Every structure is written in C-alpha cells, then in structure tokens.
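Inputs:
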Amino acid sequence: MSIGRLVILGVGLIGGSLALALKKQGMVAQVVGWSRREQTLQKALELGVVDRAEPDLAKAVRGAEIAVLGVPVGAMEVMLRQLAPHLEEQTIVTDVGSTKGSVVEAVRHVFGEPPPRFVPGHPIAGIERSGVEAAFAELYQGRRVILTPVSQTERHAVATVRAMWEGCGAEVVEMEVTHHDEVLAATSHLPHMLAYSLVDTLARMDESEEIFQFAAGGFRDFTRIASSDPQMWHDICLANRDALLVMLERFRADLAQLSDAIRAGDSDYLMQTFLRAKRARDRFCG
Amino acid sequence: MSIGRLVILGVGLIGGSLALALKKQGMVAQVVGWSRREQTLQKALELGVVDRAEPDLAKAVRGAEIAVLGVPVGAMEVMLRQLAPHLEEQTIVTDVGSTKGSVVEAVRHVFGEPPPRFVPGHPIAGIERSGVEAAFAELYQGRRVILTPVSQTERHAVATVRAMWEGCGAEVVEMEVTHHDEVLAATSHLPHMLAYSLVDTLARMDESEEIFQFAAGGFRDFTRIASSDPQMWHDICLANRDALLVMLERFRADLAQLSDAIRAGDSDYLMQTFLRAKRARDRFCG
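Outputs:
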C-alpha cells in the first residue's frame, strides 16, 4: 500500500506512532500534522513524526488521502464539526478512539447519515505514557486494531484502513459498534477503574506514605494503568458510560459476594473462586 | 554470619529460595529439609536446595540453629503443635507467613506465652509461581522482610534472623504485628482480591473466550497476581480476615462513589479521582 498524503488530527502517542510506523515501512509519501497546540506541532516536526505541521485545519486536510482523528473521545464531536466543511470527497477518515458508540453518535450528530468513507477504528495499544514524545514506530507490532464499520461504510474504505494498520504490524479485526464497547468495558475500562480506585483509596489513607513503601511487586504491576492520562479516562468513562456501568455493577456484586464469603469463613467459596480465576488466567493469558 | 544447621519446615518457593541464597553466600553449613510430601523432599534434594531430606520431623529439627516455618498460614498451628515437643532450647524459630496476627495467635495457642526465640517474619517477595521448583537464590535481593517481634521475643533472636535475611540481600524492617497486617491488607491482600474477582467476573461471562482474547497489555499485568496459589490466598483471607474486610469495605465504598459519579456524569469527581491516583502512583511507584 502507498498513501500519498496522510493527515493526523491531534498528534499524540497513538497518531504519532502510526505516522512513524508508516514512514518506517515507506508506506506514506507525506504526513501532515495538525494540533490545537502550537507546541505539540513543533515537537512533532522536530521529532520527525510529521513532515509538515499545519495549524490551520482547512489547509491541513486539503488533498489528504487518509485523515486520522487522534483527539480524545470527548473532543471528537467538536473536531468533526470543525472538520466537516473542509473534508474532501476522496478523503478516507478514521479515528483511534477507545469507545466506538460515542464516536459513531458524534458522526451522526455532525453529518446526519455517517459518511461512507468514515471508518471507526480502535488500536488496542495503549501504554501509560502519552503525548507525541512517547510515540514510536513499533507500538502496533503484534497488537490488535478493531474496526467497527456501520452499514453505510464503504468496503473499499474499510480495506484501505485495514491495509494501513496491517502495514504497521497490527492484526485487524472487525466488530459491531456496541459489541466493541462491551468487550472493551470488560477488558480495559473496568480494570482501569479498579486500578484508579484502588490507588486512590490507598492514597487517601493516613499511612499512605508507608503503605506505598511496602507495596510489593504485584501491586506495582496492578496499579501501573493508574498512571494513564486522566483526561482520556475521564472521556472514556462518559463516552462508554452504559457498558461500563453494566460491568461495574457486575464486578461490585461479585466482590460483595467474595467479601461475604471472607466474613463467613466460607472456605469452599474462596477456593472455588480463586481456582476458577487462576485457571482462566493461566489458560487465556499464558 | 555463619549458621551451622538450618532446617526448612515446608520446602517451597520461599523456604527453598532462602536455602539457596544462604548456600550461595556460604552462610550455612547444612540445610535440612522437611515436608509433608515425600515427592517435594525428593525434588528439593535433587535440585540441591537442601543437603538432607528428612521426613521425620523430630529428626529434622534436631541440632538446628534456625528453623524456618515455610508452611501456608492456615497450616501453621498444626505444624507448631507437631514441632513443639521436639524443639530444642537453642533453636531460633522464624516463619515466612503473609499474615502475622494469626501466626502469633497460633504460637500462643500452642505454647501459651510466645517462646523468646520465636521471631515472626514475612519476606515480601511473592511471585506467581510456587513450589520448590520455582526457588532461586536471588529472590530476596532488594526485597523487604518484615519482622514482628512481640514483647517476649529475645533481641538476640531478632538480630540473628535479621542477619540471615540481610545476608540474602533483603532489607529488614521491624513492625508491630497488627500494623503489619493492616499494611499488607492494603498493599497486597486487597489487590489480590480485586485481581481474582475481576478475572472470575470475566471468566463467568458468556463471551469469556473472546473477552480474554482482547485483554490488552494493562489487563495482563493487572491480572498476573490472580495466577498465585489459591490455597495460599484462601489461607491469607481467613488468617487476616478482619484487616482485609476493613480494606474491602473502604474500597467498595470508594468504588460505589466512582460508579455514582460515572452514572451522574460528574466530570469534576472523575478528573479529581484520576489525577489524585495518577499523582500518587507516579510519586510513590516511579
């Protein structure tokens, strides 16, 4: 695949790493970067993540074959609204948002019917660091990218976005929008809430200093995801509220039962729960 | 320091690694191993973890300078009861249990007054693997070991146990028994409950196979501790029930508040919580 001009709207870790990967593979002739912040654009240019930094949105998208929306999901609708008047017919648009229902809804708000060349996407490749400084070409190697085309989406556009991600070393799968949001609520959004909540619970204790000192190996791994970007997670919570609340309810009910079993000294319940979890973990996660 | 004879009662990851570390440092003349299971003893001998495998408890402890209790905390009282009639006056006894209140209680049940040469201890060095096959000499390097002597404990005995662990590269700290159990409930026991409960919640969902397939990087780290030994965690839950329940209640209340904030779309609450957690994580855990 060979992309003439690609524009990244909102250059951060995700969009920046995509640009670096495509360049490394020689799959793109020119990468244009746009960002709300002048400083970010400057840095993207300095780091060689983009070939051209363009603070004017209309100019940035002109002549682009592919436009990648890299803004947080909470900023997606505003971004789309600014983008709409300048979007050329040939440009394939995709996003990298962690929730897909909210993005498709934003698209409907702005365009009415979703444009046939808009391909909702989600590379599952978050790390704790964020920002264009953290971008690197290998981020997507062996990672999964989920595309959630809707009925209006052109197959050709989907194929192009798929080829772009596969070129970066990712495995691309397609999924229904709502199913994506349910799966991610379970595997990513819920765990992040637990990590944030746990760290916050401990941080607000009187002995927090001492407590973190004695945090053992497992705890460090466990809480690593609580170092992720708060704004991004704020946006995800609200954008995927319904699916996340379903999972939170389910988890809270299970944790309440576990607490009851501990209180009651219910050995069987504890052994069964821990064994089932260990087997699932060992089976699925190696 | 130079130990003439050390006996490990219950040779697993923790006791086995201690034996290997002491041997590597040339700090012990002979390591005797005792285990309920013939097979474990055989393996410990084959792996060079112990110099002598002794299935007879009375013979195993005879002439020992230091006896290390490596059995799960739930088996501690039975072990102590079997040990008591054979324990020689000069032998310093220490344990490696993850809870200390329950161990001191077991000691009181068996001996009445805690023996002056019993030093309750806890090396914070758990990994997910268990068993003597997983033992390695470097496990304790840079790790912490908490000793929780009681008023009856001889300072000389504490100093000996301290020197033993320091010789293995560990940093030794002393703490009150109940304080140890509170700190560990917060930093280790609660996180393990969350990891087990999360994996179990997901494993029992209809789409569990698919869900684990899409579990991203953060999730793997997050759930790694759910691979730990179920029997050990069953024992810890019951042995440290009170302190663990306090932490579970606190966490559940905080998680309920976070759920409410997500439901209400309370942006301020979400941002504040995530920021506070990120700051604490970054500050304390690097």
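Remarks. Chain B touches chain A through 89 residues (CB under 8 Å). Chain B has two domains: 3-175, 180-285.
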